[in-house]
Amino acid sequence: MVNDAEHFAEEDKKLKERINAHNELEGYAYSLKNQIESIEKAVEEKIEWLESHQDADLDDFQTKKKELEEVVQSIISKICGSAGGPPAEGSKQNEKDEL
Fold this sequence. Notes:
single chain; Substrate Binding Domain Of Dnak, Chain:A, Domain 2; HSP70_C_sf
């Protein structure tokens, strides 16, 4: 009876790990999908603006480029941050107090 309980506990643990892995992948995939859609939308808006503002001046083009860069960089930062990448230089995570 104890062997059965241990066996079922091990199966339950494996099932839980499998479900957690599935949920993590699903969440990450949908998050990426939404972020990619946000980038696509921002790119389409800038292309539409370009098509309707062929005679814009230098400042306008530079401003629109900067706006697009900000959208993309914001999303890329979120992606890199959620992927567990290395902390940025100067991050407090690397600092340790000595006892």
